[in-house]
Design brief:
Chains B, C: This is Molybdenum cofactor biosynthesis protein MoaE. The complex is a heterotetramer, with 2 copies of chain A (about 80 residues) and 2 copies of chain B (about 160 residues). By secondary structure, chain A is α+β, with helices and mostly antiparallel strands. Chain A has helices spanning about 10-15, 30-40, and strands at about 1-5, 20, 25, 50, 55, 60, 65-70. Chain A is globular. Helices cover about 25% and strands about 35% of the residues of chain B. Classes of the chains: A alpha+beta (about 80), B alpha+beta (about 160).
């Protein structure tokens, strides 16, 4: 089970801020594809991601219990 | 009263509280940066804003920025508080306080902090205009994101 | 509550009061510089300080600095308050607040203001050490003035 | 009558913060010399001066009713 977090327009696009999915040992890139198949309204290919609150690359493997967050271009400050 | 140097809050920020965190007997200078909600941007009138954060990661990124500053300027002390939720024009979105023995470093470290916040801290701003809303993306390159801009005809400029 | 943007006061400075003077619906950034009394300078321990001003001229010079800033950065708004009298370690000697639509100018104009204060505003600092006192002169060149330094042997460094 | 203001170590050196003197139409430079003759403990040759709260040069003439201030090297901020 991995925990997926969505923010900003991604959250609004699918009407959810958090998903729990049974997909451990996928890479970040594979999870992006899986999400886009489930939610065709999402475009995640160039989206930054974080695994367990640290920025991650597409080839990183997401393990059971991890939290994956999609990080849209930020605009704080 | 919180003792943490890095905070995400959903209430108005008390600038004095952030300043007091960096007070030091060895400081000759304190610089404070305050990001406020501006009404007009390129001729378009903002009605209000909404900020959203990924709080756990935002705090980690604030700590990373502080670590980077410590490496560059070991005597600098940094505190950062960012607000989330609904903000009106002139409301304070972020406060960065830096103290240092000498002023040059207090200015440089402070500006470094806000530049890095805009690069790596997961916080998002949604603009509310008279004719629409938009989650603003990547202000660094001034590229709106995603494409959901109010029509040009609606501009007040 | 004073409405003047430039003040010499003999009581503790309220940073919030100075900040509020520059709040503007068109400001996206406010920078604040706070000069505080530092304990150690080059290994010498300061016990406390005394500041003296030529108030009428100091206010005029603050106004001149503000005018210079307006010429360089027309959208910047500046407020300055300097304290005189007896100050303890960590006490606030000066507060400079600058607001601007964009942050870069708020930083630049603020630093310009403190640099100019140290050049043209008639305010003097008397240091009290364990082994003597001195009216400090011309910090820009780090030349003590006049020659009345405590002996080197008295240093705690 | 002109009004002379002294600050910082100058004030301490002569024990006065203000003098009223009957010397109108002297230049700033001549007033520096006059002060040094009156108060040999003062050294004013390279001292900045202000006339009526504006910086002044040594050749400026100080008129009746003016305020002349000696401005030691400043150290505010």
């Amino acid at each position: 089970m991995i925990n997926i977090l969505l923010f900003a327009h991604l959250q609004e696009a699918i009407g959810q801020s958090q998903l729990k999915v049974d997909l451990s040992d996928y890479t970040v890139g594979q999870l992006k594809e899986w999400m886009e198949n489930q939610y065709p309204q999402l475009s995640l290919q160039n989206m930054m991601t974080a695994v367990n609150e640290e920025f991650a690359t597409d080839d990183m493997i997401v393990k059971d219990g991890d939290t994956l967050a999609f990080i849209p271009p930020i605009s704080g400050g | 009263m919180s003792t943490s140097f890095f905070e995400i809050v959903d209430k108005p920020i008390d600038v004095e509280e952030v300043r007091k965190k960096v007070v030091s007997r060895n400081a000759g200078a304190i610089t404070i940066f305050i990001g406020t909600v501006r009404e007009m941007t390129k001729g378009k009138r903002t009605l209000h804003l909404e900020y959203q954060a990924y709080p756990e990661m935002a705090i980690k990124m604030f700590e990373q920025i502080s670590k980077e500053i410590q490496e560059k300027w070991p005597e600098a002390i940094v505190a950062i508080t960012h607000r989330v939720g609904h903000l009106e024009i002139t409301d304070i979105a972020v406060v960065i306080a830096v103290s240092s023995p000498h002023r040059k470093i207090a200015y440089m470290a402070n500006e470094y902090a806000i530049d890095r916040i805009k690069q790596i801290v997961p916080i998002w701003k949604k603009e509310y205009w008279e004719d629409g809303t938009e989650w603003i993306g990547d202000q660094l390159e001034n590229v709106p994101y995603p494409k959901n801009l109010p029509s040009e005809e609606g501009d007040r400029s």
